[in-house]
Amino acid sequence: AINGQRLWDSLMEMAKIGATPKGGVCRLALTDLDKQGRDLFVQWAKDAGCSIGIDRMGNVFARRSGRDDSLAPVVTGSHADSQPTGGRFDGIYGVLGGLEVIRTLNDHGVETDRPIEVVIWTNEEGSRFAPAMVASGVFAGVFSLDYGLSRADVDGKTMGEELQRIGYAGDLPMGKPIHAAFELHIEQGPILENEGITIGVVTAAQGQRWYEVVLTGQESHAGPTPMPSRRDALLGAARCIDLVNRIGLAHAPLACATVGMVQVHPNSRNVIPGRVFFTVDIRHPDDAVLAQMDREVRDGIAKIASELKLETTKLEQIFYYAPVPFDAACVDSVREGAKRFGYSHRDIVSGAGHDACYLAKVAPTAMVFVPCIGGISHNEIEDATPEWIEAGANVLLHAMLGRASR
Amino acid sequence: AINGQRLWDSLMEMAKIGATPKGGVCRLALTDLDKQGRDLFVQWAKDAGCSIGIDRMGNVFARRSGRDDSLAPVVTGSHADSQPTGGRFDGIYGVLGGLEVIRTLNDHGVETDRPIEVVIWTNEEGSRFAPAMVASGVFAGVFSLDYGLSRADVDGKTMGEELQRIGYAGDLPMGKPIHAAFELHIEQGPILENEGITIGVVTAAQGQRWYEVVLTGQESHAGPTPMPSRRDALLGAARCIDLVNRIGLAHAPLACATVGMVQVHPNSRNVIPGRVFFTVDIRHPDDAVLAQMDREVRDGIAKIASELKLETTKLEQIFYYAPVPFDAACVDSVREGAKRFGYSHRDIVSGAGHDACYLAKVAPTAMVFVPCIGGISHNEIEDATPEWIEAGANVLLHAMLGRASR
Ligand SMILES: NC(=O)NCCC(=O)O
Ligand SMILES: NC(=O)NCCC(=O)O
C-alpha cells in the first residue's frame, strides 16, 4: 500500500505553485509557474532515483529502471498544467500518484521486470493553447509535431517558443513503445460522490468536438443607429450560446454542450459589436449522436447568422475525437485493484478528455477515477478527501504492478 | 465663409494620429496618442493667436480675445478622443471646425465683442473610461471633480493619474460663465443622408441610461458536468443580450438598446463560465418611455437570473440623463445660419450624447449636425464629404457670430 500522507503532502506542496486566493491553482501551460511545477517534480523524481527524459513536445518522462531495461515500460502520469481558475488535483494528482507508486516500490525494495515511467504530458487542459491533450496527441501520432509546436495562445506565442523559453524543449523523438498505460484522475463530475463510491473503473471516454466561430456584422454607434438596421454580431453570438445550450439539453442526460470563451470586438459600451469570436464544445459517449449534434450546431449557427444578416466568417471544428473505449485487460487490472483493497467501485465513462484517450491509440490503456467534492472541477474550490486520494493511488499501484512483469 | 480646404486638410492631418489600417482612428482618451492630438491642436490654436487654458479635468480652452475680455465667451468645441475603432470625424470635427471659425475671423480681421473659445472636452466617448462626457459633466456640475478624476479603465488606471502622466492635468477650476455654446458634429445616424439634407438643426438629444451587470453562477468542467445541474453565467448573459435587443425593438422606432461590452470569466474553452460582466445602454427621446425600458431591463434580468439559478452580483445604473432640450434662441441661430447659406436643413434629435448635452445645463446651447456616409459612426469606415464638412463649419461660424456681440 502507498503512503497516503506522503502523497497528500506532495500534492499540497505542489499546490503552492500558482496558488490562488480561493484555494485553487493557476498554472497555465508553459508559463513560469508551469516550469516551477515541472522543476519540483523533476527534483522529486531524481530524489526517488529516476532518470529524466524530455521529448520535443516537452513531455517529461521520469523512469525507474526495471530488471530488463530493454522491455517497454509500464507508464502512468497526467498533466501539471491547470485552468486559469483550476483546482489542486486536476492532472497533478495523476502525476504525483505515479511518483508515489515509485516511492512505495523504493520503500519496499521492489524490483519490477519492466521499467516504470511517470509522465507529465504538456498542455493537457487546452486552455492557454487549444486544443486539449495536444502533446499526448503528438506522442500518439494523432497530430504532427509541427502542428503541436505551432499551437498559439491569444497573444500569438507558440508552444514551441514557450517550451524553449522555459527550458523544456527536449530532444527525445515523439512516441515509443508502451507496454501498458494507466492514468489516475479525479472524476470531475458528480457520479461517484452521489453514489458513495470510492473508485471509478473507467471503461471509456466520451467523444468531443470543439469549434471556433467568428460572426461578423457591422460596428456602429449604439445611439443613433436604428434597431432594425443593426447587424449586431454580439446578438448573434448570444443566440448561438442559447442554441448550444438547447442542443445539449435536447440530447440529455448524456450530452454536454458549452460555450466557454467569448471575445467581443471592439468591446466598447456604446458600440454595436462588429465581430465576436466564441468557442463551442460538444460531447457525447455515442459518436452518432455527437455527429447529429454537430449538424445541429452548424445548421443552427447558419440560421441565426442569416436571420441577423451576419457573416459566419469562421465556423471551424478544431478538435475531434470519437468516443474512446479503454483496453479490456487494463480495465480489469483497475477493477482487480479496487477489489483487492476492498474499495467500493463501479464502471464509469469519463466526461472529460484525458491524455489516456490518446495513449489508448498506441498502447493498452485504462484509467482510475476517484470522486471529487460536489463533482466540481475546473474551479478553485475543487476538492477531494485524503481517503479518496490514497485509495486511487493504491489501485494504481496494484494495476501497474500487475502489468510490470515480463 | 470658412476655408473648407483648410479645415479638411487639418482633419486629415489630425487623423494621422492613431490612424488605423481600415482608414479610421484609435485615439483612446488620455493615451499617448490623445496627448499627441491635443498637442497638435494646442500648437495650431497658438499659431492662430489663441491663449490656452487647461482645467482640472484636462479640458483644453483655446481663447481668442474679444473687444471686452471681461464678457462671458461664446464657446464651441467637442472631443479629441475616439472609440477603439473610431472614425476621422467623430468629435474632432467639432474641435477643428471651431478652430476654422477662429482662423476665418483672423483672415478677415474680424473683432468680436465677446471672446471666442474652442474647447477639447476630455473623454467624451466613455469607451476607455465610463461614463461618456464625464469631463463636460464635471464642468457643468453634474459630477463632482473627485468622481471625474477617479474614473478607471479596465486596468484600474484613473483619469487623474493619466491626466498627470500625459501632462494635461491643468489648474483652472471647473466651470465658468458661458454666454452661448454650439457644438458641431456628424450626425452618426442615417436620417440626413437618407433625406438628402445637409444641415441638421439639433433641437434636443435623447435620454440615456447605462448599466453594469455581473451575473455569477458556478465555474465547472464542460465535460463531466451534467446539463441540468449547471449554473452557466454566460448562458444568463446571452439571454440578457437577447432581452435587451427585444426591449429596444419593442419600443421602436425611437428606442435604442445595446450590449456593447462583455467580459467572461475565466474565459476558457472547457470551463462553464462562472462570472460574466456586461454593459447595457438604453436610449429614448421620451423620459417616461426610458423609465419603462429601465423597468423592463431590471425585471427581465432578474427573471433570467432566477430561472438559471444565477446571482445578480451587480446591476447598477452608472449613467443617466433625461432627454435634453436645446436652447430655442441658439437653435434659431443654427437654423438662420443654414438658411443664410442656402443649405437644405431639418430639425433633428440627437441619438448620441454630446458634451453639449451637459453644457446645456449651464449655458444656452445648441448643435449643428452634418450627414455621415451610410449613417455609420463608431466604425473605422466612418466618412463624410468635404461639402458637408464645409457647410457645417459655415453654419457654426454664423451661429457663433450671431451671439458674439455684447
Ligand atoms: N481532465 C481535463 O480537465 N481535461 C481537459 C480536456 C477536456 O476538456 O476534457
Ligand atoms: N458622440 C458620441 O459618439 N458620443 C459618445 C457618447 C454616446 O454614446 O452617446
Automatic annotation (TrEMBL), chains A, B:
Matching Pfam families: Peptidase_M20
SUPFAM superfamilies in the cross-refs: Bacterial exopeptidase dimerisation domain, Zn-dependent exopeptidases
CDD domains linked to this entry: M20_bAS (cd03884)
Cofactor binding: number and manner: Binds 2 Zn(2+) ions per subunit.
The enzyme's E.C. designation: 3.5.1.87
KW Repeat (keyword) present: no
Domain of life per record: Bacteria
UniProt enzyme class: hydrolase
Chain positions recorded as Zn(2+) 1 binding sites: H79, D90, H185
GO molecular function: hydrolase activity, acting on carbon-nitrogen (but not peptide) bonds, in linear amidines; metal ion binding; N-carbamoyl-L-amino-acid hydrolase activity
InterPro entries membership: Amidase_Cbmase, Bact_exopeptidase_dim_dom, Peptidase_M20
UniProt binding sites for Zn(2+) 2: D90, E125, H378
Family, per entry: Belongs to the peptidase M20 family.
Family matches, as PANTHER family: ALLANTOATE AMIDOHYDROLASE, ALLANTOATE DEIMINASE-RELATED
This protein's name: N-carbamoyl-L-amino-acid hydrolase
Organism the protein comes from: Chiayiivirga flava
